[in-house]
Input
Amino acid sequence: MAEALNSTESAHEQRHGNHRQSGNGHRHDRGVTCPVCGNVSEGAGHDRTMGKVGIAVVGGFFIVNSYLLERLLPDQTFAAMFSAIIGAATLAGPIIFTAVKDLVKGQVYMNELVALAILAAMAGGDFQTAGLIAFFLLATIIIESRTASGAQRSIEELVKLTPNTARRIVNGREVEVQALELKVGDVISVRPGENFPVDGRVIKGESAVNQASITGESLPLDKAAGDDVFAGTQNLTGQIEMQVTKVGEDTTLGKVKEMILAAESSRTPIVRIIDRYAGYYTPTILMLAGVTWSFTQSMERVITLMVIACPCAIVLATPTAVVAAVAAAARLGIFIKNISHLELAAKIRAFIFDKTGTLTDGILSVAKLSPIGKLSPAELLKIAASAEVHSNHPTAVALQKLAQEAGVELDKIESAKEEHGKGVEATVGRKLIRVGRAAWLEKMGIAVGTHHDDESHGMSVVYVASGDKIIGWIGFKDKLRNEAPQILSDLKTLGIRHCAMVTGDRESVAKTIAASLQTDEYRAGCLPEDKVEYVETIKKSARVAFVGDGVNDAPALAAGDLSIAMGAIGSDIAVNSASIALMTNDLRRVPMLIFLSRKMRTVINQNLSVGLLFVLGGMVLAAFGKLGPVQAAILHTLSTLLIIFNSARLVRVGEELTLEESRAARRE
Output
């Protein structure tokens, strides 16, 4: 009803079309009605809702007054009728005005049903009935307008997390400036208890930071020089100086806001069906009203039929559930680009996990340096770390960390080239050094050999070659995430038929981890294209979700029916490459996502069933004279409230997970 019921194709196509993002967050173009919240201009939504409440209170007072005059002062017939006329006109005004606007535009929606019912009651001289119908339906509009603005309220809550001002450090002094004035490269100071206004990197100071607003984690994280911090998160214990790395919409919080808007403005198939046939609904009901009149000659039954036929509950069945589900997901640090992805999660029957950074911590450490010939372990480390000095691959990071800890001074390199997922080729001291996987080196005609396989069992291994000769190998170890075995078991409990792992590691490493996780299948030695090929193979028999870190797994993420990026906070690649971004590396969010998706689908089906029951049952009762106009209006409001409260149950999904994290934080 009103804006909330104008859910035709054109209305939905325009949804959020007039929204703009600025450093201050959500706002509207002036003079344009926002289809989500009903706002006409920036900051007007609350005023519009309060205006409707005021109309309902004033009009309701006159209707109640007419009943009191009729009962207590029966000789004041004119006064009672005059009070009813004023009340009915006041309450019916917004509804009739909206219906007229629709007709001027050449559109016929559900608003016209209610307007015709109210006008019919007025024409029959029953202003009290017309007023009561308008009162209850106006109350429904108010409820709907608050429910339909879920996206706006989500954005407003996020905007509150970002300070309007910041203290920029200029020539060693703090100068207070507007947060919108900050630029990349500026240095700002953030005190304990304050929220970070932008994304940045700590350059001085230490503190604990609460990132729950983005990641859903209850446990604060320690931050020191070199660590990244994000807009909207809270500095808890110490003063920090940070260099700005991202501002405005480019911040992690900005991307989160975009994802929430995108998710809540997207539509599920059932909504698209309602959109398609909404234009036929009102003429059909008017035809049924005509049939009822021809058989009964009762205007009361016709009015009742038109009131109860207004399908507010059916129209709200999906949007209310979507808003609640997206809110629950955001609280858990699960951000969804399109609501169809959340709906699809309920249909997933196979999961493929990347190993490094997903099932494992992804923080490799050097476990063994094994030079060949007269080369010492320190020399092997120096050569390999020098060749990989410009790489961000986990093995390169581990090598450089060990070299730094051991005080090994790296050689300058003349040139370097990295092949994604395979290895690095660099000129170090006029020698061509290659560090990478066995298959890559063998493809270049370098014999790797297998005489050290037994010694490297359970390790991830890279080989180091000088020219066309292997000069040693380096073993790395990674730690399995504590929750990994349990979440695979939870997925099986949820009905997932196939859980597999893919990795670029060797067979021995993959076999050991797969055995500890009890996966159904694993693939070792996978290049990026091999992961894609495996995903395509599984897709032939089941809908498949690929879970990866979003950095090295972009092709495989794109290949899955559903793609889930782990640890996406601060990662543009993760947000862009995946359907769903988990802002933490907590694998427990994966089964929780499946559970939430199925719960949302169940709630939507329940809402639609209840909505149809009220509408169809009410129409039958109205046709047979078993339901009056006022009772129909009350029933209409009750059905809408029932749908909203049923959907609201979704908001609490995953609450036990956040409570568990809170208890863990208190214990520590």
